[in-house]
From TrEMBL:
<protein>
    <recommendedName>
        <fullName>KAP NTPase domain-containing protein</fullName>
    </recommendedName>
</protein>
<dbReference type="Pfam" id="PF07693">
    <property type="entry name" value="KAP_NTPase"/>
</dbReference>
<dbReference type="InterPro" id="IPR027417">
    <property type="entry name" value="P-loop_NTPase"/>
</dbReference>
<feature type="domain" description="KAP NTPase">
    <location>
        <begin position="22"/>
        <end position="303"/>
    </location>
</feature>
<dbReference type="InterPro" id="IPR011646">
    <property type="entry name" value="KAP_P-loop"/>
</dbReference>
<dbReference type="InterPro" id="IPR052754">
    <property type="entry name" value="NTPase_KAP_P-loop"/>
</dbReference>
Length: 427
């Protein structure tokens, strides 16, 4: 059993999601952008491959000798000011450049003073990548409070000095591309400080800032920031689009990865492996084309199959069992209330599937048929997603398992995926 990991890819040879053409289009547009700075937004929902897309683009830039820096803000969230951590990550990279060490250190001191003034205190040292030691923060504060004119000059001219340092770092015609990944994993306040700091401190530099996040998260961030100001605003403002216009000059929406592409990429990893139309149609109907969700499903399914085979004394299990287990796993993750009913009354699978088939044969009979269902199943009689899952026809049909098989599979899933209360609808 070979589990699928959630690590982003960084080599075009591993580009199973076929992002390369889109990377090239975005790269070509950014390559021509002048004047700088430029902020690019790469938008996509949870689990759609934003990190992989950014890593591939970073590889393309490095192949062309363009300077890049990668920043993960969630590592600093709640510990330090995230904007300061971003800034010090850039400065720490410059510090290793011949002739830039002193300038980078002066800028780091100025940035640390700004951090102190915003209430960060001695925690500022954690964001400096070792450039400013913990014991130096208090002494720096004392020095500045005593009127160190040179340091005050650095603070007041920070934006211009940072611009000059970046120019020296990348050359007169170069650019520094800073990738900010997983911004939507931060708290709303931290995400907002990163977005606003790009204009506040780095406004004239030869930088391209690439932000990867979910547009819905951006809307939540903006709503959290402005609160009641959005109460009577038009829908497009509440959606975050108006705020997006203020921060991001070049928005790019990550293309959907087609389900057929995902099937091709993941089939070698599925137990045996399974390349059965019925199995993949179940996954398409139940999970859609979300790479992360499919990876998690495949990993749990593989583990459950291994346990089931061990419980059967090593005997191979038939196609029907594979499909039944896949359906039950999907019920557990996407239809939890029905899963709990099945745990108490395993015959409910056959009962509800029979009801759905009758409704499909004669939709006008739905009210009468619904009244004939056991009371605990009334809630699910109008669930169209559950209906699609339980009523495949022809070669795609999954026969309902026996009550004994349902009980055994539930025990197996609880052993491999954890107690029923763990996780979410996306596990």
């Amino acid at each position: 059993m070979r589990p699928l990991t959630d690590n982003p890819i960084s080599d075009f040879g591993d580009d199973a999601f076929r992002f390369e053409p889109y990377v090239d289009v975005l790269h070509g547009a950014v390559e021509q952008a002048m004047p700088l700075p430029l902020t690019v937004g790469v938008f996509g929902s949870w689990g759609t491959g934003k990190s992989s897309f950014l890593r591939l683009w970073q590889r393309r830039l490095e192949d062309r000798k363009v300077r890049t820096i990668w920043f993960n803000p969630w590592k600093y969230d709640r510990k330090v000011e995230v904007w300061a951590a971003l800034l010090h990550t850039i400065l720490a990279e410059m510090e290793g450049e011949e002739g830039l060490k002193e300038k980078a250190l002066r800028l780091a001191k100025a940035a640390t003073w700004l951090s102190v003034r915003t209430g960060l205190g001695t925690a500022a040292s954690a964001a400096t990548g070792g450039m400013i030691k913990s014991g130096d923060v208090d002494s720096l504060l004392t020095t500045l409070s005593q009127g160190d004119a040179e340091q005050y000059r650095q603070i007041n001219r920070f934006e211009n000095d940072f611009r000059d340092a970046v120019r020296e770092f990348v050359g007169a015609d170069g650019r520094l591309v800073v990738f900010v990944d997983d911004l939507d994993r931060c708290t709303p306040d931290s995400a907002m400080t990163v977005l606003e700091s790009l204009k506040l401190f780095l406004g004239e530099s030869q930088c391209v800032f690439v932000l990867a996040l979910d547009l819905d998260v951006l809307a939540a961030v903006a709503t959290n920031k402005f609160g009641d100001a959005f109460k009577d605003a038009p829908a497009e403002v509440v959606s975050g689009l108006a705020y997006l216009d203020k921060i991001v000059q070049l928005p790019f929406f990550l293309p959907d990865v087609g389900f057929d592409t995902l099937r091709e990429a993941f089939t070698p990893y599925v137990h045996q492996p399974i390349d059965d139309d019925a199995f993949w149609e179940l996954l398409r109907r139940g999970l859609g084309a979300n790479p992360r969700r499919l990876k998690r499903f495949v990993n749990v399914f593989n583990m459950a199959m291994e346990v089931s085979i061990a419980q059967a004394g090593g005997a191979s299990l038939d196609r029907a069992f594979h499909l039944q287990l896949a359906v039950l796993q999907m019920i557990r993750s996407r239809h939890r209330a029905f899963f709990h009913v099945l745990a108490a009354e395993p015959r409910s699978w056959d009962t509800l599937a029979g009801y759905f088939r009758q409704v499909q044969d004669d939709p006008a009979e739905r009210p009468r048929l619904l009244s004939g269902l056991p009371s605990e199943l009334h809630l699910f009689g109008a669930d169209r997603a559950l209906e699609r899952l339980l009523t495949q026809r022809g070669s795609l049909r999954v026969p309902p398992p026996t009550p004994q098989t349902v009980r055994a599979m539930i025990t197996t899933l609880r052993a491999t995926a954890g107690p029923d209360g763990l996780g979410s609808a996306d596990d």
